[in-house]
Amino acid sequence: MGRVEPQRGLGAAGSVTAVSLFTILADSSYKLSVLLVSSAALQAYDYLLSICIISDQAYVNMPRFSINDPRAAAHFHNLIINKR
Q1: 33: helix, strand or coil
Q2: What is the structure's pLDDT at 54?
């Protein structure tokens, strides 16, 4: 099978690199299905994943702070504002 290079196309923001993901489906013969994912979509996925990770870290760090500690209140208030 030959080598397939990533495809380049034009998106709304200029040149967008598309990532090709290949899956070989086996039935009576081999078929190649190609899914093109734009780099903007991959960046959006990474951003959404990072929000979940930050949220999980906030819950892990909660026992370090007293509930009535003003530093804890400021820390979690800033975290919520900065997520938006």
Answers
A1: strand
A2: 56
* Cα within 13 Å of Cα(23), Cβ side: 6
Strands (E) across 1-84 are located at: 7-11, 14-26, 30-38
* Beta bridge partners of residue 37, listed in sequence order: 19
At a CB cut-off of 8 Å and minimum separation 6, what does 54 contact?
79, 83
Cβ atoms within 10 Å, residue 17: 14
Q: Is the pTM of this model over 0.70?
A: no
Name residues whose C-beta falls within 8 Å of residue 15's C-beta, 6 or more positions apart in sequence: 8, 9
